[in-house]
Design goal:
This protein has 179 residues and is of the alpha+beta class. It contains five helices and eight strands.
Length: 179
């Protein structure tokens, strides 16, 4: 029998929730939220309609390890909120850089949860990155405000393919230099 070491990522504290590692039990809420077109269309990788088993496959991939992407769940259960409010991920790039991505369940949009989650990741800097990058679709100025609220600076325009939209979408790219 082969035993692999279990790497436990620490939870990160935010004011109104905890950023904790992904669990299999998160599947139902994540599937419910990501099956909504408004949420999927705001991301590059979430398909719409959401295929059966897609959420479980995502969770299995992250929990299996070996992936460069770290994923945290915004868990508000300790404060009487939903157990899953959204997700934030951090993917290492080369030269001491990481890319941050996030989504918040539509029921919790315009609550400041995204800004709070990104600020917690920036403060913890779990990858010890020198620079954080992020990209948002230009038709989502709320996500751009999240980044500027957290000290990110506009870098330039680009384009990215959105699976849910099945087209290339104009983006704004942001960066944050870490000390």
């Amino acid at each position: 029998m082969i035993q692999e070491p279990i790497v436990v990522k620490p939870a990160l504290a935010a004011e109104r929730f905890v950023l904790r590692p992904l669990r299999r039990s998160d599947s139902g809420l994540i599937a419910m939220y990501t099956s909504e077109l408004r949420l999927a269309a705001g991301t590059r990788t979430i398909p719409h309609p959401l295929p059966p088993g897609a959420t479980d496959a995502f969770i299995d991939r992250i929990l299996a390890g070996g992936q460069p992407e770290d994923v945290w769940v915004l868990d508000g259960s300790e404060r009487g909120h939903a157990e899953v409010l959204g997700l934030v991920s951090l993917t290492p790039m080369d030269r001491g850089q990481s890319e941050i991505k996030y989504w918040i369940a539509p029921a919790f949009w315009n609550t400041g949860y995204a800004s709070e989650a990104v600020a917690a990741i920036v403060a913890a800097n779990p990858h010890k990155a020198r620079t954080l990058f992020a990209e948002v679709f230009q038709d989502n100025p709320g996500s751009a405000r999240v980044l500027t609220n957290c000290g990110f600076e506009y870098l330039g325009d680009a384009e990215a393919f959105s699976v849910a939209r099945d087209t290339t979408v104009a983006t704004w790219t942001y960066l944050r230099k870490m000390s």
